[in-house]
């Protein structure tokens, strides 16, 4: 019996060490500390920007227009102008079958192609906008053919 206990002590110590490492540094409750940059032991503190806020309506992360691919800017301009568009599929109804965007009546969303340099087809990049055909007030960007979306900041 004593031999079994002696064998399990190093395993227990390892488990406690791993759990402590996963928990991360502790902060006193009510200290008002906010989530900020962290640094690895022995390194200078990082100055990473905080995670972008999420759109309160969709829960999706925001993306600034300046962070979109350069090909997206002219697409947003053409959406606001009502065209002309490069693809015959631009402006068609997006059905939101994936259910990632907020639920809305059929016909609420329209999709537009963001050209992908070097692609021989439409590629995977799209902008999807809600509302009237020329509205860019509520638009979303996907770089992976609807697997994920980010809300474009108006």
TrEMBL record:
The keyword Nuclease applies. Coiled coil: none annotated. Residues 1-23 form the signal peptide. It comes from the Bacteria. Keywords: Hydrolase, Nuclease, Signal. InterPro entries: N1-like, Ribonuclease/ribotoxin. It holds the Pfam family Ribonuclease. Residues 30-47 have a biased composition (Low complexity). Residues 26-61 are annotated as: Disordered. This is Uncharacterized protein. It comes from Deinococcus metalli.
């Amino acid at each position: 019996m004593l031999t079994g206990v002696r064998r399990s002590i190093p395993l227990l110590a390892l488990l406690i060490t791993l759990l402590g490492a996963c928990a991360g540094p502790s902060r006193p409750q009510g200290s008002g500390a906010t989530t900020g940059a962290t640094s690895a032991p022995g390194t200078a503190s990082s100055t990473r920007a905080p995670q972008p806020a999420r759109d309160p309506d969709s829960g999706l992360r925001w993306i600034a227009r300046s962070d979109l691919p350069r090909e997206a800017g002219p697409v947003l301009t053409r959406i606001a102008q009502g065209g002309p568009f490069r693809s015959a599929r631009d402006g068609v109804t997006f059905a939101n079958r994936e259910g990632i965007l907020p639920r809305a009546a059929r016909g609420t969303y329209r999709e537009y192609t963001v050209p992908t340099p070097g692609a021989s087809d439409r590629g995977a990049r799209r902008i999807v906008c809600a509302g009237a055909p020329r509205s860019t007030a509520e638009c979303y960007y996907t770089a992976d053919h609807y697997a994920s979306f980010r809300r474009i900041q108006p």
